[in-house]
Amino acid sequence: MRTNYEVVVIGGGIIGCSIAYYLAEAQMDVAVFDGGQIGNKTTKAAAGMLGAHSESDGDFSLFFPFARSSQAEYIRLKDELYELSGMDIGYRTGGILKLAFSERDKSNLDPLVKQPTVDWLDYETVKKMQPEISDTVIGAAYIADDVNVIPTSTCLAFAKSAQMLGASIFENCPVYDIKKNGNEYTVKTDNGEVRAKHIVLATGVYSNSLFQNLGISEKLKPVKGESIIVHHDKPFLEHTLFYEKSYIVPRNNGKVVIGATMIEDDWSDSISLQSVEVLLKHAKTMLPSSINWKIDSFTSGLRPTTFDGHPFIGRHPEDEQIFIACGHFRNGILLAPATGKMIRNLILKQEVNKEWIDAFRINRQEKVMI
Fold this sequence. Notes:
The chain is an alpha/beta fold. The chain is 31% helix and 28% strand. The protein has 11 helices and 17 strands. The strands form 2 sheets. Strands 3, 4, 5, 10, 11, 12, 13, 14 and 15 form a 9-stranded mixed β-sheet that branches. The model has no long low-confidence stretch (mean pLDDT 94).
């Protein structure tokens, strides 16, 4: 293992691998260190929805344009990453049907439907698009642009593409300590020490110990998400179905994801029978025929959340050579490209939207909401 790099990225989930890709693309000498295998923690458990609209919760101010820019970046990335890595990220069109079962549900969707790329569809139209939909649905907001990818494939494509561009990837190599020595940092890993000019923390919910190491008082909390992976004998779902934070997501690999629970402050990766029961109930509410699906597997991951639910992306408050990219909660897959580009531009001192810098800085005030 070499001992000197321009940038060390700590964390090999989709955020860390995206950052490594954009840095390597900019011809920077970058290394990624992960305590386990690339993309094998929270990334692996994600559904992969690129829900810029559906995840904005009616707030289309700052978060939405950031998410939208990241969503649009995937249109280019799906081909670029394939060309470099030979890996298909499973980019699937079809969009999301955000369902309404009552007039109140419909009213709650009004801010979303006012967006120029979103359409309100009545029951008859929804039924034509998805014949097996529940008869109690009164309509849906159709978001054609909210597509999906396969998270693990996308993360590995970022990592392999970064390697093809010169990045180094170190798996099963946890980082224990970071110390500043003059104008560079010494990073203590399981395989020895390395030095770097810049450090990027992309360790998700496991960031707290390194935060403390670097004098950062903020903490991340886990929100466990459990999902069921199913398969079906024939294609039967063309669009993602979404209702009250629950979803059914068809993937290009022939599998379907039913998700997801939201259990706060649970650090375990176990999956309870109660959670399975809840997920199946939600799936049956949207698509009654789901009761006949065959279970392939279960998955769970710890979503990293901040005090206001939005990520920390930017510089250390007191050290311009340390960067934070953590706390993406439900939106790690969606926001990976925009996060990677933002960190790259900050390191290279290129232009970054000042509103995004202020909104995502780690020392923002609790009253600052986006």
